[in-house]
Design goal:
Helices cover 56% and strands 13% of the residues. It is built from twelve helices and nine strands. A four-stranded mixed β-sheet has the order 1-2-3-4. A three-stranded mixed β-sheet has the order 7-8-9. α2 packs antiparallel against α5 and α6 runs antiparallel to α7.
């Protein structure tokens, strides 16, 4: 979630806002101002902010339920299409996953009950004019929270309903197959939502459809990758034939290495074989584009603080090391000598070879 900034921490998670969220506010304010003036614009902006407060509560429902099962939620990000709680992992126990998935919609139902208790009415006219500031704020919020609960229960993986669907499938089959089926079903629903959005002229629905379609495929691949990772050690997945650079090599030397090999990242090793860092092709190209002298040492552009694992480490532990954005994970002996390295690309190749 690049282009996001933090609003601070709340209940143990960092609350972020994506910059595109402000584009939504600007669009809502401008549209309302064009039709109803300043009062309408202010009214609609207050409604949108209140709506996203409910979305934040929905996401914290997931986060707090996940915490019961020992799963942390590093951050929650507000986007124009809703909120995204980034859990460290999803619970693999099916009933725990059902609980985490249903916790979000349950929060919206609770908010609806509270709003009705506070005097919100549910006339049908409210639903027809839900974007009108003339309709009571409590009435609009009450309807929207019911709609949020119902919409999130659509079985479109990885939405909440899709996760419930996947969890139920896991009761009868392995998690990889269940995820693949749930993801395919979610993509079918996403195509339907996309057509509905295009036919009704609703760009938000189209964005949600695109997100669901892409996210379903991405999570299906991630689950398959982790399934493979549990069965493989670092020694089985590492690249052992590679061209290494030395501390005395220059940018010109690194450029020649790019030309003469198919590597995208080059370990820089000292005389004893210990890793100093990685020189990536992207960093090299960026340096050359800035007209940095080719006589400059390659070590000046290397990525330092490369995570390391041992030969006997499980591949699942390797996957966790990529979360910091490292270009590779080094595999080292007990004396810290690098004997190979692992990239995201060769993990993907391993999955294809193993039929995932």
């Amino acid at each position: 979630m690049t282009w996001s900034f933090s609003l601070g921490r709340l209940l143990g998670s960092e609350l972020k806002v994506h910059v595109t969220f402000f584009l939504l506010l600007a669009w809502v304010g401008f549209a309302a101002y064009s039709t109803g003036g300043m009062q309408a614009a202010i009214g609609n902006l207050i409604f949108v902010l209140a709506l996203f407060a409910c979305v934040v509560a929905h996401e914290f429902g997931h986060a707090l339920m996940a915490r019961r099962y020992g799963i942390k939620t590093p951050d929650i990000t507000l986007l124009p299409i809703g909120g995204l709680a980034r859990l460290e992992r999803m619970p693999e126990n099916p009933m725990q996953e059902v609980s985490v998935a249903l916790a979000g919609p349950a929060v919206n139902v609770v908010i609806w009950i509270i709003l009705v208790f506070l005097g919100a009415g549910m006339p049908f006219e409210t639903l027809a004019n839900i974007d009108s500031p003339e309709t009571g704020l409590l009435n609009r919020l009450a309807y929207v929270n019911l709609l949020l609960a119902a919409f999130n229960l659509i079985p479109a993986f990885p939405m909440d309903g899709g996760r419930v669907f996947r969890a139920l499938l896991c009761l009868r089959m392995d998690r990889v197959k269940a995820t693949r089926i749930a993801a395919f079903a979610g993509q079918i629903v996403a195509v339907g939502l996309g057509f509905l959005g295009l036919s009704t002229g609703n760009p938000l629905l189209v964005l949600i459809a695109v997100f669901v379609f892409v996210a379903a495929n991405a999570e299906s691949q991630d689950v398959a990758m982790r399934s493979v990772a549990r069965q493989v050690l670092a020694r089985d997945a590492m690249i052992t034939e590679f061209h290494a650079l030395s501390p005395s090599d220059t940018l010109a030397t690194a450029a020649q290495a790019v030309i003469h090999t198919t590597q995208h990242e080059f370990p820089l090793l000292d005389a004893t074989g210990k890793l100093q860092g990685f020189v990536t092709r992207d960093r090299l190209f960026a340096a050359l584009a800035k007209d940095i002298p080719r006589s400059e040492l390659a070590s000046s552009i290397m990525v330092e603080d490369i995570p390391t694992v041992t030969l006997s480490s499980g591949l699942e532990a390797v996957l966790k090391q990529f979360h910091g954005g490292a270009p590779a994970v080094a595999v080292c002996t007990r004396s810290d000598q690098m004997v190979g390295y692992i990239t995201r690309e060769n993990i993907g190749e391993l999955m294809i070879i193993r039929g995932r």
